[in-house]
Amino acid sequence: MKILLTGKNGQVGWELAHALEPLGEVIAFDRGGLDLAVPDQIVSVVRSVRPEVLINAAAYTAVDRAESEPDAAHAINAVAVAILAEEARRAQALLIHYSTDYIFDGMKDTPYVEEDRPNPLNAYGRSKLVGEQAIHDIGGAHLILRTSWVYSARGKNFLLTIRRLLQEKKEVRVVSDQIGAPTSARGLAEATAELLRRHGAAALGDARGIYHATASGFTSWHGFAREIARLERPGSPARIVPIASSEYPTPAHRPGNSRLSNEKLLRRFGVALPSWQACLEACHAMLGKNAELEAGRHNAQ
């Protein structure tokens, strides 16, 4: 199949470019080749490629900065998404788009299901919700995959931040009253590729709608940090101190409960991501291999 991928240098896009390779021709764009802030460029690229599958892994993801740049977040996460959906429908292509746990307010006591009412607490969540609604209203073949707490071995994310802080500090203070599922970009990319491999674009289009796709299980940011510390320093972890959200104020409010139920994805497609701990261990191992390769290159110079 011919797949058009946006955001190829982002966390998820980078992993998708590799995971999708066995499935056919992957035509991947970074922001330099396809800037979602330029509507005419979106139209031109999609019409020239004429894909069977359009995967949008590009997004405005700076949650706190979105509070002061709501128009920028809306342009990428809502306006551009609507254009992508229109062009995917015009090309009769399946659109796969990623959304977020932050469309919910976190007030529910149990994991959110796809039919729960959204009520975003921040500008980022609002922009992502408008993007979801645009895809639904345009009505082409689509899958919206909501995920949470994405990290990878590259870019800017919680894992890499905690690794750095563990090197710099004897004590790291981390919020303990927000819970969710840390989800590796590689796990999400591999699940996406598995959906296409097992079912094909036509069948996925027939099953159009929203599906939650996170690593299984859940923890707090504090629990996530503790597991990172355990992997980083076996036997002598740094002290990871739990704090309340009120002790770590941020421009954007975040939901206390970010748990998403993955039952619909498993029931409909037979696809599930591994546990968050297994995903983290795999990502951490990759970081170790990258460090070894970098050391080998340095020693060879």
Describe the fold and architecture:
The protein is α/β, with parallel strands linked by helices. Helix content is 45%, strand content 16%. It contains nine helices and twelve strands. The strands form four sheets. Strands 2-1-3-4-5-10 form a six-stranded parallel β-sheet, with helices on both faces. A two-stranded parallel sheet has the order 6-9. The chain is globular. It starts with a strand and ends with a helix.
Tell me the layout of helices and strands.
Elements (H helix, E strand, L loop, with lengths): L1 E5 L4 H9 L5 E4 L10 H11 L3 E4 L13 H21 L3 E7 L22 H16 L3 E6 L2 E2 L6 H11 L2 E5 L3 E2 L2 E2 H22 L2 E4 L6 E2 H12 L6 E5 L19 H7 L6 H25 L1
Parallel strand pairs: 1-2, 1-3, 3-4, 4-5, 5-10, 6-9, 7-12
Antiparallel strand pairs: 8-11
Helix pairs in contact: 1-6, 2-3, 3-4, 5-7, 7-9
Shape: globular
Largest sheet: 6 strands, parallel
The strands making up the biggest β-sheet line up spatially as: 2-1-3-4-5-10
Mean pLDDT metric: 93
Strand content: 15-25%
Class from secondary-structure proportions? alpha/beta
Rg estimate, integer Å = 19 Å
What is the H/E order? EHEHEHEHEEHEEEHEEHEHH
Helix content: 40-55%
Compute the number of helices: 9
Counting DSSP E segments of at least 2 residues, the number of strands comes to 12
Kindly, what is the distance between the CA atoms of the first and last residues, rounded to a whole number of angstroms? 42 Å
Could you list the spans in which at least 5 consecutive residues all have pLDDT below 50? Answer: none
